[in-house]
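Hi V.,

You were right to ask for the full record rather than a summary. Here it is.
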Amino acid sequence: MITAIVFVKADVARIPEVAETIAAVKGVSEVYSVTGQIDLIALVRVRSHDEVATVIADQLNKVDGVLETETHIAFRAYSRHDLESAFSLGLD
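Predicted structure:
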């Protein structure tokens, strides 16, 4: 599984609509509205690098109201939540 973290600068007047449209793109698992230099952070989780290109370059970047994106590919996950999910036996 490939995880990409995408920083999105959006038209400020359209942030909620842009976020909802991005969240509906297949391969986008989460979208967060954030403070700072960027407006949104989208988490993309796909199986191949070709899918990263399809989701980000072919779809996310073309959402009306997206002004700029910056993509970071994750190498490793260190989150306790992710590790617990991966090794859970489902014995709750």
